[in-house]
Design a protein that fits this description.
single chain; 600 residues; alpha/beta; five-stranded parallel beta sheet; 45% helix
């Protein structure tokens, strides 16, 4: 609606011989008495038009008043604000304009083929993923889906920390468990401080004991063997959440392919390194960092930063237009160093963006839950998916901005009630689909065959509110992409579901709200509204990758309010398993401390 009204205002400004502003801003007034939309265009143009804002506003309002099909009333208020009161027919026309093409929701082409590399998750392959990794994974995937939806060409990448301290520690851990298992069975031995703990590792070593035996003298080789198997477990877990990567990028390839030496050579040649106290330093302070950073330590080993620099050199050498890293918020200070490295390597650091994920608190009924015995200190993502189901996991991770700490309540996620937001959204979609099934039984066309419909019967305030919410969809989608805030989609869908459910339940006491009525034209108009609502709910799995919900998956779906259908039996599709047990975990870090790349 804002776009349509902006075009109308621009047309009348031209007709009056007035200048055009860079942008015509339209806002929704907080108070209903101030109209549907308000604009400060007269205040913006007053100086260029050489007229007082109130006079200019009055002149424009008089001209716009000729659009009798659109405006119920136009008021000039205060120093020159113009308040617009729109007729229902204006909303009807806007809704039809937006949905004339069945692919209208996919027409936003913000990306225009821009190539984007999104790196996310990048969990160390040293153990199962925890819920912090899960949040990183879901947000990264949703952002990728949104970018693709509006015309970006997206590649998804998982950086595998398969080299360095954490892999050696994993190898030492495997060797320890192998020794206990094969050489000193039955004797309880205290775990060394520097090994990873957890039943998952004992089980894996048991499974691979014959392959570990001949390489047990080489802990790094053992670590790589275990890491490969654990990475496969991570891939399987991601697949359970409908997350597939374009590429798994091995850190070891940076060493094997000489890419670290190449990156260091470029930095040396640029004069941005120096030696001090036997170490090689990078002048990151010249790029806004609070101090310079070590690249090669005095013992001739690399810091975490060095392979990350080589990795980002390789990223930029592949020629993407935008690079988006989804990382834990505890690595916020690391972003400036990576931007410094990108600039020092001769690339544009503005092409590198970061989404910093805040922590996840896993709770049960408001109480932080206990630790997991399987891993020793954290609840696995696998346990949570088993308990509440894939759809709830994905949606709950999207319920808050990535900039805010998330409380994940396991009990709420399992509820089959309106208190559970994902269930509530799926319930709304199921009701819409059932309305059309019942309508077809009554002789009305399907949603796909509805064709041209007169929307004049849609006059109820709640119907206009639904239309307003639908018309806000493209703007919401645009904002979610531009600000990299995928949670806006979840908020929007929940708001739309609540608005629809409120409208739907009003039919219990007021026949005006029924969809199937004795009047065919009224019914057709209401079906068109339900059709457009369902179109948005069809689109949401693209963005959030959750099931839509139907009469077979949702229990007790009552249609009596709108169409007098008996309750429909069904079963919620959550997976049930052992309850998860844990506390507070980070959003993207390895469960066992920092890996070879602190940026992950």
């Amino acid at each position: 609606m804002k776009s349509i009204l902006s075009n109308i205002i621009a047309k009348h400004l031209e007709g009056l011989g007035l200048p055009q502003p860079a942008e015509i801003v339209l806002d929704e007034p907080k108070a209903k008495e101030h109209g549907d939309l308000s604009s400060n265009v007269a205040l913006v143009l007053a100086k260029a038009a050489k007229q007082p804002p109130p006079k200019l506003a009055a002149q424009l309002a008089e001209s716009l008043g000729r659009e009798t099909e659109i405006f119920e009333k136009i008021e000039v208020k205060g120093p020159g604000f113009i308040n617009f009161f729109l007729k229902p027919t204006a909303y009807h026309a806007s809704l039809k304009s937006l949905w004339q093409d069945p692919n209208a929701l996919k027409k936003l082409d913000l990306g225009r083929g821009t190539r984007v590399l999104v790196e996310f998750v990048s969990a160390n392959p040293t153990g199962p993923m925890h819920v912090g990794h899960g949040r990183n994974a879901v947000v990264g995937d949703c952002i990728s889906r949104l970018l693709e939806e509006v015309g970006f060409e997206v590649s998804r990448e998982f950086y595998v920390n398969d080299h360095g301290v954490q892999i050696k520690t994993l190898g030492h851990s495997g060797c320890h468990y192998h020794t206990v298992m094969t050489e000193v069975r039955g004797v309880e031995i205290a775990l060394p401080e520097d090994v990873y703990k957890g039943q998952y590792l004992e089980d894996l070593v048991t499974e691979l004991k014959d392959r570990i035996a001949p390489i047990k003298h080489d802990p790094l080789a053992v670590g790589k063997l275990l890491g490969v198997e654990l990475l496969e477990t991570i891939k399987e877990e991601l697949l359970r959440l409908n997350i597939v990567f374009s590429r798994y990028y091995s850190e070891s390839s940076l060493y094997d392919g000489g890419k670290i030496d190449e990156a260091l050579a470029v930095l040396r040649a640029s004069g941005l390194t120096y030696e001090k106290e036997g170490a090689l330093w990078f002048k990151t302070s010249e790029y806004g960092d609070d101090k310079d950073r070590v690249l090669i330590k005095s013992d001739n080993t690399y810091t975490y930063l060095t392979p990350d620099i080589a990795y980002h050199k390789d990223k930029f050498d592949r020629g993407y237009d935008l690079y988006l890293n989804v990382m834990g918020a505890d690595h916020g200070g690391y972003t400036q160093r990576l931007k410094a490295a990108v600039a020092a390597l001769g690339h544009n650091p503005d092409k590198l963006e970061f989404l910093l994920m805040q922590l996840v608190n896993l709770k049960r009924g408001g109480e932080v839950v206990n630790m997991s015995k399987r891993t020793g200190d954290y609840v696995t993502l696998h346990e949570v998916i088993d308990e509440v189901g894939k759809d709830a996991v994905r949606f709950f991770f999207m319920m808050r901005s990535h900039n805010a700490t998330l409380d994940f309540d396991l009990e709420l996620a399992k509820q089959q009630s309106s208190d559970n937001p994902v269930f509530y959204i799926q319930y709304a979609h199921a009701r819409m689909s059932s309305i059309f099934r019942k309508a077809e039984e009554a002789g009305y066309p399907s949603a796909e065959a509805l064709g041209e419909v007169d929307l004049t019967p849609l006059q109820l305030e709640e119907e206009i509110t639904l239309i307003k919410t639908l018309l806000a969809y493209p703007e919401m989608l645009k904002g979610a992409v531009q600000f990299r805030e995928a949670h806006r989609v979840a908020f929007y869908l929940l708001d739309l579901a609540k608005t629809f459910q409120n409208y739907y339940t009003r039919a219990k006491g007021d026949d005006r709200y029924r969809v199937l009525t004795p009047h065919r034209e009224t019914t057709l108009a209401k079906l068109y509204l339900v059709k457009t609502l369902r179109e948005v709910f069809f689109a949401q799995p693209v963005h959030l990758a959750i099931g839509r919900g139907d009469r077979r998956s949702l229990p007790g779906l009552s249609l009596g309010s709108a169409i007098r259908e008996d309750d429909l039996p069904g079963r919620h599709g959550a997976h049930h398993g052992q309850p998860a047990r844990h506390a507070r975990v980070g959003s993207a870090r390895s469960p066992h401390g920092e890996g070879a790349s602190a940026a992950r």
